[in-house]
Amino acid sequence: MTFSQRLGPSFFRSTQDRVRALAVESGLDAVLTDDPEDVAYLTGFFHHPCERPVAVWLDTDGRCLLLLPELEREHAEAQHAAADLVSYPEYPGVVPPFAALGRVLGPGRRRAGHTTSITHQRLTAAASALSDVELVATELVTRCRYVKDPDEVVLHAEAARITDVMLTEGVRLVTDALATGGELPSEAELAAHVTRVGTGTMYAEHTDVVVVSMLAGGLVYAGPNSAYPHGLPSGYRLRPGDTFMLSLGCAVGGRFVEGERTFVLGEPTAEQRHFHEAVRLAQQVGGEAIRPGAECRAANAACLAVIRDAGLGGYLRHRQGHGIGLGMHEPPWLEDGDDTVLEPGMIVSNEPGVYVPGHAGYRISDSMLVTETGSRPLTSFPRSIEDCVIPV
């Protein structure tokens, strides 16, 4: 039996109704968003963003309109977009794109909330074409996306399963090279391998694969290169004694998960053990702090305190984590400046790390689902130093 990545019509009906209810509470007549993730969230239409506007108009009277270039019409129909399609011929167009939306809306004063990520150029174009509409900034759709629907959680869980497969197969590539006496892989070769595993698993086992910016893959780095938190894979070839990191993830149905583990090639030194164990303990404490009713900043403080107490505060470079959903990084933020209260159904990363210049970086990450009583990791690859040592 294959796994379908597409959500059904009932999901979009309930999602649109949730957004409408929040719009009414906020004194809005409609919501206008051109954020590609919002578009996918509200209608199920995934597209390649470019200069041609694609936007959703969702009003409190029950209409959901998807503005798009005519060349995308068949694409939206093939994805069963949950909206009435309003197309324009081309961009920039003899008639501006948002004018097509204005013709369908007709005259009448309205107050519409627009996404805060819209560019000044596009907001100006929308305001010019929709002259009867008062456009005000809102994060309403973003807030709605915080708590995942159970059908979304199913997609995240499948992405977590595949992420664990990618981690396992990344380690296998290294161990196979050691077993045969072959050359150890480079960071780039290891990254390409896990990417093939992730995408290959989806296309072999899923129907309706939703292609997004990063379907599967991640960051792979070893030795001193891993001391850069977001370093990119290079031609550096792994060698015995290295600390190396597999920072991987994938998106199923457009819903992301990340899973990261730090490995040691050969018997770890006392220093490597100290760094790894401090991060592992911080991640454990951080996971326990992720629970309903807790503020994001409190979870972050509890997590990072473990690293500071281990005398490694000088090697901290980032917060505990972030929200994850249709975006690999999205709010809320597990950081000292975010007082968002965690709720059941939220998914956040739990990824403390330390980065020692000239030596290596150590990071362990799981995507955590907030439950009614606490939280649980969606990814399950082992985390201890014993499980993350590759004998040489």
UniProtKB/TrEMBL annotation:
Residues 17-147 form the Creatinase N-terminal domain. Pfam families: Creatinase_N, Peptidase_M24. Keywords: Aminopeptidase, Hydrolase, Protease. It comes from the Bacteria. The keyword tRNA processing does not apply. InterPro entries: Creatin/AminoP/Spt16_N, Creatinase/aminopeptidase-like, Creatinase_N, Pept_M24, Peptidase_M24B. Residues 157-372 form the Peptidase M24 domain. One of its GO terms (molecular function) is aminopeptidase activity. This is Aminopeptidase P family protein. It comes from Actinophytocola gossypii.
